[in-house]
Amino acid sequence: MVASRQGLRRMSAVGEHHGPLLTLNDLPVPKGSWSVANAKRQSKMNMQLISSVVAFSLTVGYMIMENIVYLNPPPRMTNPPLDILKS
Fold this sequence. Notes:
The protein is mainly alpha-helical and 87 residues long. The protein is built from three helices and no strands. It is elongated, with a radius of gyration of 34 Å.
């Protein structure tokens, strides 16, 4: 019997289970108000967003002030002098 089972996959979903099957009754039950927990989570995320925007702005401002990044402004758009156009 051992020789015949060596060719089987050991990771298949069908076959022996190593414990009882879990159901939705085994999941933890939430406690407390959802709106309070959500407000607390959102205040943390908003602080992270604000701090990252400030850090990014400071970094870009420093890079522009120190000429680390040159933003390549477009060329000046001027009309040619009229005396060049007449000749």
